[in-house]
Amino acid sequence: MADDFPDISIDFFASPQRGMATLQRKGNLLRSTDKAVTNAMKFTSGGSDTIDITRYDAFAFIFGNGIKALMQAFRHHRTVDMQGKVKARHLISRPAASAVATGMLARSMAVSIGKLIHEVLPAPLFIVSTPTPTSAVAADNQLWKDAALLRPIMLDLLRQSIDALQAELPFTFIHQPEETIIKGFTDPAYSKGSMQLSQTSREHHDDEPHHMNARYGALMMTELVRTFPAGAPR
Q1: How far is CA 120 from CA 47, 80, 127, in A?
Q2: What is the model's pTM?
Q3: Is the separation of the CB atoms in 186 and 77 below 8 Å?
Q4: What is the maximum alpha-carbon separation in the chain?
Q5: E-strand spans in 121-186?
Q6: pLDDT band per the 50, 70, 90 thresholds, residue 230
């Protein structure tokens, strides 16, 4: 990726699960008091356990936002047009579904940390969609049996929630490219060979549906860089 974008320098900070939710702002720094989180940040960034907000021209987040999160949210409560092979336990109205989707994004780690950053400077913010799982997730999970039916509905709810929050916190959302989707699921070619977030650098097993590989990462990074405004600092 460095050869493809020689004028861009990127630092990665990550922690398993919801570790980054522990970040707090102290002056210009984002830091965590959780030792496991600071260790993970050091490992993924190459040595830094804090984020100096003033060092960066833009920030991108991948924190569980997208189709996957919405599918989980509507596993029991669905609108009439969400009814497919799996019947909902409770029917809700479309306005109620929209309110749920908007509330989820408003309370997300990405938006929370984005607000901390904007307390210091108005840097461009990008929220990158968490990848949709591969079809292996449907083998023992009824939730995903209607993935092809639900995907366009969830995308519409997601777009509405993005629009609703722009006045509160301006950001650009990077959607998963449709070219990576097959019948509502991510093409397994983008999953095989994915790596665990650990110092052992072990691969996930082939049927692990939630994590994507370097090919997918490069594609999403390209989508992100293409979204940068022309002439913006790099």
Answers
A1: 23, 44, 19
A2: 0.89
A3: no
A4: 52
A5: 125-128, 172-174, 181-182, 185-186
A6: low
CA distance 20 to 32: 8
Q: What is the pLDDT of residue 231?
A: 47
Q: What is the 3-state secondary structure (H, E, C) of 218-230?
A: HHHHHHHHHHCCC
Q: Tell me whether strands 77-78 and 90-91 are parallel, antiparallel or unpaired.
A: parallel
Given a contact cutoff of 8 angstroms between Cβ atoms, the answer to whether 14 and 197 are in contact is yes
Please report, for residues 144, 162, 209, 218, the alpha-carbon distance to residue 1 in angstroms, rounded to integers and kept in the order given.
33, 28, 24, 7
pLDDT per residue over 166-188, tens digit each?
Answer: 999 999 999 999 999 999 999 99
Both tokens of residue 227?
Answer: 């979204």
Q: Which are the contacts of 130, defined by CB distance < 8 A and separation ≥ 6?
A: 62, 63, 64, 65, 66, 67, 68, 69
What is residue 206's three-state secondary structure?
Answer: coil
13-50 residue pLDDT tens:
999 888 999 999 999 999 999 999 999 999 999 999 99
Conformational region of residue 183, where left means phi above 0, alpha means psi within -120 to 50, and beta covers everything else: left
- Give the pair of three-digit tokens for residue 58: 């833009």
